[in-house]
Design goal:
Layout lengths: L1 H25 L1 H4 L18 E3 L2 E3 L10 H37 L1 H15 L3 H12 L3 H11 L2 H14 L3 H8 L4 H37 L11 H7 L9 H28 L1 H10 L3
Antiparallel strand pairs: 1-2
Helix pairs in contact: 1-3, 1-11, 3-4, 3-6, 3-7, 3-9, 3-11, 5-6, 7-9, 8-9, 9-10, 9-11, 10-11, 11-12
Amino acid sequence: MRVLLRQHRLGFLGIGILLAEASVALLAPTLAPHAPLDQDTVWRLKPPLTVAGAGRFMLGTDQLGRDVLSRILYGARISLLIGIAAVAIAAPLGVAVGLVASYYGRAVDDLMMRVADIQLAFPFILLAVTVVAVLGPSVGHLIIVLGISGWVPYARLSRSEVFTLKEREFIEAARSLGAGDVRIITRHLLPNVLTPVIVVGTFALANTIIVESSLSFLGLGVQPPDPTWGSMLSDSREYVTVAWWLWVFPGAAILTTVLAINVVGDWLRHVLDPRAVVAAEGSAPR
């Protein structure tokens, strides 16, 4: 019970952080003290809590005199948008492939799983870098690349789940009542696959945000002057020793977001999977 209570507290804390970040991202035009693209080199590289002619810079300014706080708030919009949209593409695609492959089996399963193996043979970040370099860096291309590149874990997960379900009695009963393949897949198999998919999707969201930040850091993500956390880190490389706030605050934003998502994912795993709950209670110290 103590394990469950601790998981609930951490889970609610993670949800609270994510809701706060989502609210801040949506309200960025209202909350940001300055326009994220406004430049004034007179106030360049000012430390946090600087009071200047244009107002107060709570988190300082960057090398072009832009407000760091405003850029972080607007960067949250892009990072969260890309992460959520990429998962929204990858999860349905992977689940559909896994359901069809495992339900029909044989040639269909072999073909789809070999395609998955080919994609897994390439490192994820290298594949994303290659495709983005060919298509060109933009928000739309980044979402498409991350979405299409991330379907394999969902396909393998749903495939393994369906293999254990399709010979169960309730599936046989549905067949005996005349249910077709589409009805069995959508009404009986899909609902039983959603729980683990939600958990995996939560962790995948954190990984997608890291990959987006990495691509932006390498200059292959969202292009300047649009602010993203990764591009802000990239811009701070030349000022690490003289302007610590340029990399500390964007890095803290990425760290906090990813940590909160992972905590929520772990909490969902315990809440949605009864076997995990039993294991946690059994391993808890008495």
